[in-house]
Amino acid sequence: MARNKERLVLLLDVGPSMHSVLPQVESLCSMLLEKKLIYSKNDEVGVVIFGTQETSNDLKNEMGGYNHITVLQNIKVVDGQIVDIMEALPRGTVNGDFLDAIVVGMDMLIKKYNDLYKGKKRLCLITNAINPIKDSLEGTKEDQIEIIAAQMVAKGIKMESIVVRGSLSQDADKRIMDENDNLLSIFSNRTSTRTVYVDSPISLLGAIKTRKVTPVTIFRGHLEISPQMKIKVWVYKRTQEEKFPTLKKYSEKAPATNKSATHQIKVDFEYKIEEGSSQVIPPEQRIKGYRYGPQVVPISAAELDSVKFKPEKGVKLLAFTDASNILRHYFMKDVYLFTAEPGNRKAALAVSAIARAMKEMNKVAILRCVWRQGQQNVVVGVLTPNISENVKIPDSFHFNVLPFVEDVREYQFPSLSSFPASCQPNEEQQKAADEFVQMLSLVPSGKQEAMLPEFTPNPVLTRFYRHLEVKSHKPDAAVPPLDETLRRITEPDPELFSQNKAIIDALHQQFHLKENPKLKKSARPRRVSREEPSGSNEDGNAADVADAQAVNSV
Question: Which UniProt keywords apply (predicted)?
Fold first, then answer.
């Protein structure tokens, strides 16, 4: 459907101050386009770069100005050619103006789709925003942005701004950065703009949602507090594991020139009375069987359907309890989001009141949920208040599924405090261990938290998409080496270890690894046969060899 298609224009800063992170920008944008080729092959993408010595855009030709901005790729259906362009971005030689680039990108979308197109239109800006924006000919810079923002709202254009800082901004003019941040905040306040600040290559790779998943409700109905009190809510999935794309069987029997060929493979199964028999058992004569001890109990489809539990659809409150009673390891499966029915002010007020009361009293709610009519299982879970800090976003709840007794796995381990004093760490050892743990903290003092989940891409999926793109050009291509940025996700940071070598050395000094002579002497006993082999010495030697091989294979 046209409404589900996205028209995207990438606005990329390639000026000198961005050169050090352009490899990560190339990886990010390539991954975005690779996922579109898999999941959204009808989306259309354009590419604009700014900070180039050359100028090539329609507004320059029509009105003048808009210098150092180049339309690298006009808007078209995403294909492998655009991916190739993104993998080798030009390096600019002048400082770019991100505001001019936004106007050029808007102009491309408006001219291409005008007011007739009702699908999604989006700009994606990636810059460090440390260079000055030129003054407006009429009014202030803020006035100019207000006009641009109003036009974006009128044309239904959304924007995503990725601001790369960190080491790039160490020598930058703070006054200019603050001014640019203020200008970008106007877009966030006046339009549907999401602004994200990142300070590391890892965060940059996860800054853009490379695959847009349309939110779908799994439940729309009443949250029943009591038979006399019900709140209209919608329930969405908040988190869900991203799986590998489905790999399908493909037939090459149809000629490549046949455009109507589906190349699909249909698999049919036949059940026969016995191997080698030609008599096929029809579906109506088949029945499921379940093992019960040594026998197999046949159960027909009608019996199976009648024995299934068929609860009524609904979400009901069972009780409130202290948050401390629900342990973290009880949480199962995905996380759900409970929100008030959109546009229902009474429901929003009720949800907010209950959520804030629960937060104040440190309580959680236990719910019984049946999402759909005819669902064959009941879910019991915990509802946790989610108080919003943004006045534009209403309060809500997070919901986690809790286990039944059959789902719990108990593992009993002895307490470390029960060990003898000789096995307990002394004061120096404990101090060395504490310093080592603190050294590896993801939230170092005075710095932003590292590896935030919302900014950390899955390295396995990312590498798979990259390899898929390479194979599309060269079917016999080898698996590419692991990208350096992805390596920093899967391996310890070498810079962190080199900077804290003294702490690591102190840990080594406190905990010496020595060979245990008792374990060395007590070798694993050789497995001996109950019957001694009779005959010559050669037979006996053969038995010894066999026993030795058996021990080695354990």
Answer: ATP-binding, DNA damage, DNA recombination, DNA repair, DNA-binding, Helicase, Hydrolase, Nucleotide-binding, Nucleus
Which residues in the chain are classed under CATH 3.40.50.410?
A: 2-205
CB 383 within 8 A of CB 398: yes
Kindly report which listed range (138-147, 254-263, 282-291) carries the lowest average pLDDT score: 254-263
Return the HEC string of 317-356. Answer: EEEEEEHHHCCHHHCEEEEEEEEECCCCHHHHHHHHHHHH
Nearest to 358, CA basis, from 218, 233, 225: 225
Sign of CA dihedral 298, 303, 305, 307: negative
How do residues 213-264 score in pLDDT, each as one tens digit? 778 899 999 999 999 999 999 999 998 888 887 878 888 887 777 778 888 8
CATH number of 217-240+310-407: 2.40.290.10
Say whether 496 sits in a helix, a strand or coil. Answer: helix
What's the one-letter identity of residue 460? V
Give the domain 416-510 fold. Ku70; Chain: A; domain 4 (1.10.1600)
Q: 13-50: per-residue pLDDT in tens?
A: 999 989 988 988 998 898 888 888 888 888 899 999 99
**Within a 10 A sphere around the Cβ of 321, how many other Cβ atoms?**
13
CATH topology of domain 2-205: Rossmann fold (3.40.50)
What Å distances lie between residue 370 and 91, 152, 399, 403, CA to CA? 56, 42, 13, 15
How far is C-alpha 330 from the geometric centre of its chain's CA atoms?
Answer: 22
Cα 285 to Cα 221: distance, rounded to the nearest angstrom? 42
Task: Look at the block and give the residue holding tokens 């590391």.
Answer: 200
Q: For the chain, percent helix, then strand, then coil, each to nearest 5? A: 40, 20, 40
Cα atoms found within 13 Å of the Cα of residue 323, Cβ hemisphere only: 11
276: left (phi > 0), else alpha (psi -120 to 50), else beta? left
Using a CB cutoff of 8 Å and minimum separation of 24, what contacts does 445-452 make?
448/199, 450/200, 450/202, 451/202, 451/489, 452/203, 452/206
Instruction: Give dist(CA 193, CA 124) in Å, integer.
Output: 10
Q: Where in the chain is the domain with CATH 2.40.290.10?
A: 217-240+310-407
